[in-house]
From TrEMBL:
This is General stress protein CsbD. It comes from Niastella soli.
C-alpha cells in the first residue's frame, strides 16, 4: 500500500483529517515510523474494524 503522503507535512495533514473522521484515533495510533507502516495499518484495521483495502481508500481520499 502506497500513500500519497510522502513527506511528514502531508502525513500530518492526513492524520488531522483521519482523527476528525474517526475520533477514536489518537496520535499514537497514527504514529508513522519508516519501515513499520504495516504494523500501523494492522493496528488501525483492528481499532476501526476496516479491511486493508478500506483503509487504503480512506487514507488516499485526502
Amino acid at each position: 500500500m502506497e500513500y500519497k503522503a510522502t513527506t511528514s507535512g502531508n502525513w500530518n495533514e492526513q492524520k488531522t483529517r483521519l482523527k476528525k473522521e474517526f475520533p477514536a484515533l489518537t496520535d499514537k495510533d497514527l504514529f508513522f515510523e519508516i519501515g513499520r507502516k504495516n504494523e500501523m495499518l494492522a493496528k488501525l484495521q483492528v481499532k476501526l474494524g476496516k479491511t486493508k483495502e478500506e483503509l487504503q481508500r480512506i487514507i488516499e481520499a485526502s
